[in-house]
Amino acid sequence: MRHKLILCVLCLLFAVSPVQAKELDRAELNFAAALISMSTYGAELNLLARQWLQDLGWVVDSHEYATALAEARVHILAKKLPDDEQIYVLAFPGTERKQDALVDLRMKRVVFAGQSPAEFEAAAERTDKEASMPLVHKGFHDYTQAALFSEKIPDFANLTLGEAIARDLRNHPSYQLYLTGHSLGGAAATLAAARLADLGVRPSQLRVITFGAPAVGNTAFARTYEKRMQLTRITIDGDPVKAALQSLSNYVQFGEKVVWESHLGRFPHDMTLYLDEALRHYQDAHSEQDHPYLVTGQRRQVQGLIYVAPFDFQVSDLLSADKRYMERVARGILNSAYTPIVFGTTNGDIYQEARKLGAKYILYEHFRGQRIKKEENNFRLAMEEELYDIDGNVLSFQSYSTTARTLTPIEAVGYLVMQAEPERSAKLKGTT
């Protein structure tokens, strides 16, 4: 079954014309990559990112491959764009399991060479290592090999997943592959792109975006592969992980470096902070009237206009600067989920304006946010949602709350709106 799922996703991608070598908007691309990287983690609250991606029309296919050296996960994501092209992403999770930590600590250097999975492994077992050879972190190498080159797939003529992807990209030289990941995942994405380059994929076809990723290899590795992929390394100022192996193992970073300043006083390596900053950058660069490629979904057709009353936000002064981001996240999730929908602006009679617009439903969203005592950077956020028909009959009332311990306050608002989606959608009569 697993092989058939992979086959279906890859066939879908290459049957519907994947994204060709064109430039997508950078802020949108970084936001989509951050959302995807966040979704690769297994924590319950990261369901926010996964559900958000699904609502935006992304198909997600997750797989795990184990060898004696690593237990690797790889996620294949696909989205059909408005112009009928298809974007194709490989994403790798960061460190979250004990086995991942062991991979991180396996810092011995191995030779990085070869043009087939067998040659990759043979090179890594070599003992005659010199500084002039491309050398990489053994743990990261083992993880990448397990994820892409450890298991032959009968439906792909007994090629491994990595070989099948490389073959299809070689056969379609105008297509692009995006690779992304956070921390360990970013290291795996970089090495995966290097392996695909060794298998004949062109530099213009390999677009890598990493978040807080460490250096993966020595100077010889960096000089060999820096022109064989398009690598963007996004870091938050003060993130210690990005430079850890540079000082410990004399590894070298390469690619375009982008540095963000965090707006929150937290450990600057958390993926939640990278997603928070990516979302801020995206909103700052785009108006709500823009029609993005990557973060617009297939909306559910509702039989009747939904009128959303102006949001009621009552938050601590410490959160007031982020209120505009919170409001836009809530609007964006609702707007991506349903059509027809309109967001009210009146401070007067809500029902009068809703009837004037021909609405069938009225939705109220109330948000509260206060700092938790004795926890400097933590907040409790709560949402109450009321859904009425135009005659004032209550269709649903929901209340949810969460803390910003594992999410940022902006992300927490999105999480709360998504928590209410199943019951809300059940009460809204629609066709799809």
UniProtKB/TrEMBL annotation:
N-terminal signal peptide: 1-21
Domain Fungal lipase-type: residue ranges: 89-241
GO biological process, one term: lipid metabolic process
UniProt KW keywords: Signal
InterPro entries referenced in this protein's UniProt entry, alphabetically: AB_hydrolase_fold, Fungal_lipase-type, Sec_MonoDiacylglyc_Lipase
Pfam families, alphabetized: Lipase_3
Keyword Signal: yes
SUPFAM superfamilies in the cross-refs: alpha/beta-Hydrolases
Name of the featured protein: Lipase (Class 3)
Organism this protein belongs to: Selenomonas ruminantium
